[in-house]
Specification:
about 0% strand, mainly alpha, 5 helices, elongated, binds fe (ii) ion, Four Helix Bundle (Hemerythrin (Met), subunit A), about 80% helix
């Protein structure tokens, strides 16, 4: 009933060590959530899992957005930067919406939640974070 575990692989690497480190923590957190929800999909469990996930995601987005600012990403690539921020905002809004449902006693199905989270993370890393990573690595001269 739960989504298959997400495995880290080298295609996720962005070339920016601090971003990759946080992505590995996110992958680990999602896998842990999958195991926990398989054993306990109560409202309390969903509440705690989405709370922990949202706070780590917000912290992570802040890290990336700070890096964008530091390296002048919005100035250099304004459309990509705007789209990147928009994806972060949409993710946060979706998780907040899921949490509203949990609080009102109409929780999302765990497999739908995990499917969304895993799908979003993989798509965002591969298509959006890697673009940012390549830009930062080029600026740092580590590309
Ligand atoms: Fe991102």
């Amino acid at each position: 009933m739960t989504a298959p575990a997400l495995a880290w692989n080298d295609s996720f690497a962005t070339g920016v060590p601090e971003i990759d480190e946080q992505h590995m923590i996110l992958v680990h957190t999602l896998n842990e959530a999958s195991v926990r929800l398989a054993n306990d999909a109560s409202l309390e469990s969903l509440e705690r899992i989405t709370q922990d996930l949202l706070s780590y995601a917000l912290y992570h987005f802040e890290t990336e957005e700070q890096l964008m600012h530091t390296y002048g990403y919005p100035e250099d690539s304004s459309a990509d930067a705007a789209q990147h921020l928009e994806q972060h905002r949409a993710f946060s809004a979706k998780v907040v919406q899921v949490r509203e449902g949990i609080k009102q006693g109409t929780p999302v199905a765990p497999e739908d939640l995990l499917g969304f989270l895993n799908g979003w993370l993989v798509n965002h890393i591969l298509n959006t974070d890697k673009k940012l990573g390549a830009f930062i690595a080029a600026r740092r001269g580590t590309a």
